[in-house]
User: What shape does this take?
Amino acid sequence: MLSLWLKAGYIEEGKLCPNHKGTPQGGIISPVIANMTLDGLENAAKSAVPQRIFGNTRSKINVIRYADDFIITCVSKDILQNKVKPAIESFLAERGLELSQEKTKITRIDQGFDFLGQNCRKYKGKMLITPAKDNVRAFKENIIAVIKKCQALPAQTLISILNPKLRGWANYHRHIVSGRVFGKVDNCIYKQLWNWMRKKHPEKRKSWLVRKYWSNTSKIWTFSSVEKKKEKARCYKLIRTGSIGIRRHIKIKAEANPFDLNFADYFRKRKSGASKQASVFK
Assistant: This one.
């Protein structure tokens, strides 16, 4: 059934376009196919290690997977290198896949590693997950490029372009240790906005720029712009990543299914608790 769906093609502007190469990269069906294909990866990793009578090493192997990206943790580098890795390569080979040697890395947790744009590392025995440096740098470069590109556009247009980017990136990292990073990103954007204003109004004084583009709400200076249309006025305000707030993620039970009525009460309490936690952090 799945193979027929992949070969069905798609319709664009009323014309049927055949598909001979499967699903496109980034398509909405890709994560589903990845989950179906890699189902059983955790069992393959644990089965590679013999279960000992004294001290169950198999139980100390943990697999964290998101679509086709995954982490495997273990108490020993030797077990990962000589037992788990060959088992994973064999598991993938049966499905016509292979382990990427460029992206595969075996390291100690106190040295840290990047996973899905976030850095996982233990500091003096304490596990901290923070936004990865490469992810932060790429995001800042993207924001700076947008601000420079919008030099000739009105402020409300610039705000409308930046807000979805800032909100999406901050919501992705709000569940980890990211408060300090949010502050640095907001500071970088603040400096870029001042450069944008001075280039746009080279002959105006600083006090004039402040009155035109900055509003002081709740003792916080906010980059804003008022658009007047006839008798109505609309105020555009740039959000700060620090204003999104930090909300810790509570892992969902593995057996919980949102489509199973037996777990309706569980998800209702979880959602209610998340809303209360968000109000506290904000």
Summary: Strands lie at 10-12, 15-17, 62-66, 69-73, 113-115, 118-123, 126-131, 214-217, 220-229, 232-237. The chain has nine helices and ten strands. Residues 278-282 have pLDDT under 50 and may be disordered.
